[in-house]
Write a structure and sequence with these properties.
With 435 residues, this protein is mainly alpha-helical. The chain contains 18 helices and six strands. α10 runs antiparallel to α11, α10 packs across α18 and α14 packs parallel to α17. The longest helix is centred in the middle third of the chain and has 27 residues. It is globular, with a radius of gyration of 24 Å. Bound molecules: s-citryldethia Coenzyme A (SDX). S-citryldethia Coenzyme A binds next to loops.
């Protein structure tokens, strides 16, 4: 519940001895905010914050991050507890509806998701229009956007029933579409979802099953994948979630908004980092090459960055990386890959980096992407699918934040301003007088 900071205000002197008083608002936990909505009207000046490092774009009740303490809460519950005691659809229910489900609520939600996993048969034809070597993220962007062409009744986003159906459809169909993208790239037949499987088990079945024989889901892999889904479910107003909110703020279709979120996530500075980490570890190749890469990461003239390190918010260990780090040991051991060289390189790279002044001064710690790719690779999931799996898991966060935005009476179309540094108005120059 937002309060107005007990009547506290911030006084701003914006030149000409003009003092403006701005309300301070407090949340339930975390930093207060200064309400600057009237700033331009009262002072004729904007704030300037490229990258939104100090800007709260909305109010939200879904996820809270304390970057200094390395804390991540979904509706108040620690990510470590959720990863330990829940499965992914249980966490989806929590993120969407605000409370952990009872047995009956969970069963109803799981049934609803399970019975929306199939896609329109025409989607299979659409995918066939791609080259076989299309990146799965390109396919995902296109196919999720295309869902808005198949579900016209969802386009009235002010109807809560339409929003609920779109929510189920997106969470349910993302694994199906992601696996279609993989099967198409592998030249293998598409696999239909099987309602008898769990959410993660169904994805493994659609990824690795073939029509000519039954596919037995490995419970170790399914559990590891389910935990990876949980750890990627939502994360406050990150770049892709902010993209979904901005697109959604115009009243666009939820499928179009989520498609934009997938596009934003693809970048190597964001969700594309898990793919980049595994490629980087492959490039490092051996523990003795680590110092060379650490040196490059610190060199301002070298665009190389230590992928999987650093974070806009976490200035401490990303709690998700902590869970994944221990999960990597467990899963690789169970898969008989305890001696995986990439895991050894990752651990030594982390140890050396965390002892290095450059990383310490800048509070650069491993983030969620640093260990996730090692686990996915050990599960024989192709590197090109890593970010697609991140998108699959983050869909619940995107759609929950989209619903919250639509239902927020204070939200309006997102339309930032700028500091203009181009030419002031000038006379037109006819062609024969140019040059
Ligand atoms: C995700 O926002 C979220 O919540 C995202 C996410 C989610 O769940 O949605 O958590 C998922 O995107 C995790 C981040 C994955 N990206 C990477 O691992 C790519 C590598 N990391 C960086 O590109 C970077 O750390 C960012 C993009 C993650 C954060 O960048 P910021 O906050 O804009 O910080 P910055 O670029 O201003 O860096 C501050 C300093 C700079 O040095 P100085 O100019 O102060 O000398 O730290 C340096 C940077 O050069 N730095 C790094 C570094 N990350 C930052 N130097 C080497 N290697 C790195 N990885």
């Amino acid at each position: 519940m937002t309060n107005t900071g007990n009547g506290r205000t911030a006084k701003l002197e914006a030149g000409h001895n003009q003092v403006t008083e701005l309300q301070i608002m407090s949340g339930s936990v975390g930093p207060d905010v200064i309400d600057i909505r009237k700033l331009y009207a009262q002072t004729g000046t904007f704030t300037y914050d490229p990258g939104f490092t100090s800007t709260a774009a909305c109010q939200s009740k879904i996820t809270y991050i304390d970057g200094d303490e390395g804390v991540l809460l979904h509706r108040g519950y620690r990510i470590e507890d959720l990863a330990e005691h829940c499965d992914f659809l249980e966490v989806c229910y929590l993120i969407l509806y605000g409370e952990l489900p009872t047995e009956a609520e969970k069963a109803k939600f799981v049934h609803g998701v399970t019975y929306h996993t199939m896609v329109h048969e025409q989607i299979l034809n659409l995918i066939r229009g791609f080259r076989r070597d299309a990146h799965p993220m390109a396919v995902l962007i296109a196919m999720v956007g295309a869902l808005s062409a198949f579900y016209h009744e969802d386009l009235d986003i002010n109807d809560p029933h339409n929003r609920m159906i779109a929510t189920y459809r997106l969470i349910a169909k993302m694994p199906t579409i992601a696996s279609l993208a993989y099967k198409y790239s592998a030249g293998q037949p598409f696999m239909y979802p099987q309602n008898r499987h769990t959410y993660a088990g169904n994805f493994l079945h659609m990824m690795f099953g073939v029509p000519c024989e039954p596919y037995e889901v490995d419970p170790v892999l399914a559990k590891a994948l389910d935990r990876i889904f949980i750890l990627h479910a939502d994360h406050e107003q990150n770049a892709s979630t902010s993209t979904v909110r901005l697109v959604g703020s115009t009243g666009a279709s939820p499928y179009a908004a989520i498609s934009a979120g997938i596009a934003s996530l693809w970048g190597p500075a964001h969700g594309g980092a898990n793919e980049a980490v595994v490629q980087m570890l492959g490039e490092v190749g051996s523990v003795d090459k680590i110092p060379e890469f650490i040196k490059r990461a610190k060199d301002k003239d070298d665009p190389f960055r230590l992928m999987g390190f650093g974070h806009r918010v976490y200035k401490n260990y990303d709690p998700r990386a902590g869970v994944l780090k221990s999960s990597a040991d467990e899963v690789l051991e169970l898969l008989g890959q305890g001696d995986n060289p990439k895991l050894a390189i990752a651990r030594e790279l982390e140890r050396i980096a965390l002892e290095d002044d450059y990383f310490q001064e800048r509070k650069l710690f491993p983030n969620v992407d640093f260990y996730s790719g090692i686990i996915l690779e050990a599960m024989h999931i192709p590197t090109s699918m890593f970010t697609a799996i991140f998108a699959l898991a983050r869909t619940v966060g995107w759609i929950a934040q989209w619903n919250e935005m639509v239902e927020d009476p204070e939200q309006k179309i997102g339309r930032p301003r700028q500091l203009y540094t181009g030419p002031a108005q000038r006379a037109f120059v006819p062609m024969d007088q140019r040059g």
